[in-house]
Amino acid sequence: MIGGNSVGKSCMLSRYINGHFPESINVTIGVGISIQILEVEAGVKVKLQILDTAGHELFWKAICYSLPQSSGCLLVFDLCSYNSFTYVKQRYTEVCDRVRPYTVLFVLVGHKCDRKDQEVNQEEVEEFASELGVPYIEASARTVLSVMDLTLWQYQFRVIMLGDSTVGKSSMLKRYTEDLFLECINQTVGVDFYVHFLEVEPGVRVKLQFWDTAGQERFRSVTRSYYRNSVGGLLVFDLGNRKSFENVQQWYAEVCERVQPYTVLFVLVGHKSDRVKAGERAVDRTEAERLASQLGAPYIEASAKTGHNVKEAFELLTRRVYQGIKCGEIQLRDGWDGVKSSAPTAQILQRIQNSEAAEKNKSCAC
Ligand SMILES: Nc1nc2c(ncn2[C@@H]2O[C@H](COP(=O)(O)OP(=O)(O)OP(=O)(O)O)[C@@H](O)[C@H]2O)c(=O)[nH]1
Ligand SMILES: [Mg+2]
């Protein structure tokens, strides 16, 4: 990301990565690095290493060293500062010179488009962009206008994995996010982190942030601190291990106690269903279903080893949370990170109304 100082590069990045607009100014020194994973098409994930450069002249020389290592560049200027537009024009030529013989692809961003006091003439910018063959987009990190197009997600849900050690929580996540299964035991230490994207309905993409907690008691004080900012919980037990089933109630109670006044929605997973075929079932389906209904959660049996129902378990939970938001059971609140939205409230409501209208039409047609 390149642009003059105070044009809002770090704010754009913060909105993109965290869904937040930081009100306080925090001047970048040198270069800041952020990582984001983006599914550019079904099954193709890109790891973005974003270098947020300092706009101050003082740091330009240092920034020049990282230029030949870059494949893309957002040229950001402030629509309310003509100088910042002149600045990116100059930098464009300089960047092209420095990266040679490699190629960098650019996008020109007119930032702070929410403001009325704009100094930069749109026609002039568009002319400049078309001369260079660079796409131009106007954006606002404050209101999320267009940054949403860059983020490609409208909601972020935090989901926590719960259950005794070795029931297969990490294995389920590995299967879901990487389609991998490892036979060896690799117990989680503290908390691990995974990301996945899911389109819950056409045009509504959810970024799922998974907190994979360690089932071992000795990590409980660490893992407990993650309960409060979760909106979904996968309660996992091993179908071949009765004790892990009996402990589900305890996991459930512990989370419920700590998330007040917020709501966490659960799915109960009878895991390692491949063991059932081998005659190792220690928990009946009816018994598990009874517990699930006591907890107000759907029940599903899955296996990370064979891949059976793993995707379905995660998607069941994600859609349940999404429905919870639509019907008001879950509310987005300041200071709570269980759900974040990159869309302004008006857009969310509009989208919900549209999808409800579409559903009504569908049922009328029947
Ligand atoms: N048969 C079978 N074994 C599995 C399955 N999933 C995981 N395992 C095995 O169970 C063991 C423990 O799996 P993990 O995913 O590490 O368990 P965990 O719940 O994350 O454990 P902690 O991190 O200690 O809380 C590993 O040896 C896996 O290979 C499954 O679906 N079927
Ligand atoms: Mg684990």
UniProtKB/TrEMBL annotation:
Lineage: Eukaryota, Metazoa, Chordata, Craniata, Vertebrata
PROSITE patterns for this protein: RAB, RAS, RHO
InterPro entries per the UniProt record, alphabetical: P-loop_NTPase, Rab_GTPases_membrane_traffic, Small_GTP-bd, Small_GTPase
Entry protein name: Ras-related protein Rab-42
Record keywords, A-Z: GTP-binding, Nucleotide-binding
Similarity comment: family membership: Belongs to the small GTPase superfamily. Rab family.
Record PANTHER family: DRAB11-RELATED
Transmembrane spans: none
